[in-house]
Each structure stands twice: as structure tokens, then as C-alpha cells.
Amino acid sequence: MKEEILVSDLLIRCTVLYHFGATRFEEIISHISKNVSEVFLQANNGHTKDLLAVSNSGFSFNLLKKYGYDVEVYEADSVQPILYGKK
Predict the structure, then answer these.
(1) Residue 4 lies in a domain
(2) Does the global pTM surpass 0.70?
(3) Which among 13, 49, 65, 70 is least buried, having the fewest CB atoms inside 10 angstroms?
(4) Is residue 18 part of a domain?
């Protein structure tokens, strides 16, 4: 029996993708944007220096917009806002 890889219409990932760095983070979003219509990302505006450049909500917002998502930002916690992207 052949194995199938299923692609969901929804991806939820909290505070982890930016740890891969800007290039890999973008590669992941680029890849999933081809098949995933809804994405939740948790940003972290509380990091310092190099990690803040990738972990902040502005970076995630711009990345999701670049790959065709309409983005809403929920800032119940201003340090770790949630971004919701939908195609």
C-alpha cells in the first residue's frame, strides 16, 4: 500500500518557526502557502537582538502577506501576539 501525505487546510504553529532563522522560516511559509489556506502564528516581540528581527509580529505579518494571506493580528498579549492568515 502506498503512503499518502495529507496536507491540511490549517496550520497552527506557536513560537517555533522563527527559531529556524529568517531564510528557513520564509521557505516554510512559502511551501505551506501553496496548499494551506489558514495559518495561525504566534510571534514574540520580547526577544532581543538578532532573534527579535525574525520573531517580531511585523516580520510574520509581512511574510504572510507576501505569500498571499490576508492577516489579522490579535494582541491580547502584546509580547506574544497571534497572527491569523487566511487565503
Answers:
(1) no
(2) yes
(3) 49
(4) yes
